[in-house]
Amino acid sequence: TLVLRLNLRITETMVKHQKEKLYQSAREHRSLSHIRHGRSEHGVSGTVRKLPFDCCALTLTQYESPVCTPDGVIFESKAILPYILKYKTNPVSGELMTTRDIITLHMDKDENTGSWQCPVLHKPFSNHSKVVAIRQSNGNEANVFSYEAVEELNFKPRNFVDLISGEKFSKTKDVIYIFDPSNDVLNQKREEACLRSQQLKELQHLGDNTVDGNSDIRHSVTSQSIMDTLAKKQSVNNSKKRGDTRPETSMLERGKKLKLFHSLEPFSAEQSSYGSLTSTSMSAFGPVHESEVSDKATRQAQFDAMKRYMKKGYVNIHTNKGTLLLELHCDIIPRTTSNFLGLAQEGKYDGSMFHRSIRNFMVQCGKPANGKGEGRSFWGEPFEDEFDNRLKHNQRGVLSMANSGGVNTNGSQFFITYKSCTHLDQKHSIFGQVIEGFEVLQAMEEVPVDKNDQPTEELKIVKIEILYNPIQDAVEAQQLRKHKSEEERKRLRETQRASALGQEKITEASHHKNDGAFIAQPESCAFRVGKYLQRAEISKPNLESEKISFGSDTNTASELGAVAVTRLPLPPKKTVFRNFSEW
Fold first, then answer.
1. In 3-state terms, what secondary structure has residue 297?
2. No. of H helices and E strands in the chain?
3. Is 480 a catalytic residue?
4. Active-site pick, 345, 403, 478, 521
5. Structure confidence by residue, pLDDT tens digits, 297-354
């Protein structure tokens, strides 16, 4: 017994030290290879790609009228019904299937956000939610709930009654799990449905030797473009097999079609008289044609100019309760401020009613004065959101854009906050701030409203007065900056060209005498050493006695009149070798 206890103690000590070791044995390394390679222990891939909840397993796009199979795989009804009528198989298992096997899902959608939600908890479904469907008595319809609601209200109290219709259901037969992030089997089925549909299409293409780009199944934008490309290639191959050969278009015609060449006309006699193609007197640049610029690019250039100009805009909003002085962040949010200033300048806000006022929250305005429609932007279409970390809904009097509940859906409506509401940050574009007239804002907040938050008294904008609009000044400053830059580049090109051709000479008219010194100046003062250093002045204090020798002739500087500037280096000085006696 003592020996057995001693052996057990030794074994426990060895196991303890074996767990604390800082290395792996060869057996442990082999046993963990499936983890390093992303596989399960049986060799199957352990990473299952999970499709989003609102994604059809057949088209990989968001569904609008969802249906499912008895296995719980969700499809878009407009995609799965043509698929079943064409192939008569289940996209998941490959077995025979008819339209009677399709189950229509009744899912609740949030009117404000447009996302699917649980009808009981009003909690939106996400990619991490567990969702179930309760099949009804007819067998072809099902109500969708979150698993939390069904578990708390049906499973735990053993009350197997549908929470909407009131029909009884069976926990084992009528409960369908349509989405579960932790269920790899269900996720694998959803993935196999898309793969099987692609395989059937490939088999059909191989059998028909054609590519059907106009299928009844709705594809995503990327897959549809790929199908169109394959269809074009297939049609070209079929035309070549039939012997339908067409003359190929020349490179010139293709260039015209693609607009690669601005001018394809030959040189005129006047242009060709300037010199050959290798002549330095001929311009190296051809005629430049101004390309067509889209309105979007023009607006973007204007917005960039406003940011560089770094000036604020100021407006007065005259209401029937008083005047509000607003500062607009034109240097930070140029697009939104341009929309507001453009609409105000056209008088679109004059007579507009404040149609929504919520105490301790905000007051909203911007609908047309006639009350028709929600209001369009200055450009006639919704424009993009603009966010900046320096601007937040953290105080009273913040001017911000109202949207339609989605991204990039801004129009003409805006609102002014009564207090801090930071939950609106990164959702609504802030483009201004009230700097004077807070007592008017307080009077607007005290106006009574009805159950729809609409003021019962008249509350409207009489007129918007623009005190300062920096848009025009920013554009003019940008044009002036561009003009100066072009002039500088033109002057630099002329300088470089004149320096390369050696056209700078000193004329007799450019001689000046300044305190007995002779200063030689060129015709163009652009000749410089480097970019900023002026050329060294040639100073000859004694014109009569100083002699300049050229070859065998010896003349004075006054007799020569002008000395040509040479770019050659000076000749080396004569060297005389002597002894060290003078040291």
1. helix
2. 14, 22
3. no
4. 403
5. 888 888 988 888 889 999 999 999 999 999 999 999 999 999 999 999 999 999 999 9
